[in-house]
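Lab notebook page, bench 4
Experiment: in silico fold of construct C2
Operator: M.H.
Input chain length: 279 residues
Purpose: comparison with the prior construct
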Amino acid sequence: MISRPNPSSQRLVSFACAIAAMALPAAAQDAQDPGTQPSTPTVAVTLPEATILFERHSEAVGGMEALDAFDSRLLTGSFKGADGMSAFVTMYYEKPERFAVILEIPGMGTINTVYDGDIGWRQAGSNIQIVEGAELVDLIESADYYGEVNWKSRYRTIRTVEVGAIEGVQTFRVAYDSVLGKRGFHFFNNDTGLFVGTQTTAALGEGQQAIFVQFKDFEEHDGILMPMRIIQQLPGNKVSTFTFNSVDHETKRSELFDRPAELERLLEVRKDSAGASDE
């Protein structure tokens, strides 16, 4: 039987998936404080091509060569939600696009959200839910091990639309349309060329909500710059924070992608239902 986890814990899982793709090599800079949106200066600046901005970012973080030195990435840390809820977080990426988020919520148990390169599911105890629709899109986009370094495969269109500022630092805003139909804006630091934030929508709870995400506290791990704190802002100045304390490129957690027996049963039921409807 498919059942829905506690609504608060489901929002927590959705938060994790919404920012997971952004928890990849990004810009090493002192980002703005939570609640501060990018501003648009009045000084005229020549806008560079979006392709140039993505290439500058890719080169700055080490490019494909640095990322190809490893086959997986394991991040561990904690989450603090706007409503005070907290959890221990594990995020695991495996090439080319397998991804898992494990949340250990004190007093509530463990929730796993997984994309195995083919399907997505959420498991809370013995309860399993197949991830579908907009949330599945977020999960698939989160699963890309290479993140924005893989921009040529991730986007249908990219276009530099304006220059702005994040906490006084000049940034270029790039409008994007992903191959999965997701739209939003990415921000690139004009001085460093690095990717420093994003604005989009995410499947949170029962619907789509606007989300603004920044990256802070960058550290180098195995030659790759990694943000160790990620701050996201939702409407109403609701701020949540992911803080990572370790990055491991050696430990394998491939067992996370093993499909539970109950999931296989649900998939078989779905297959049979689809076949019956076609008759």
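Observations: The first helix runs from residue 7 to 20. The chain has six helices and 13 strands.
Next step: discuss at group meeting.
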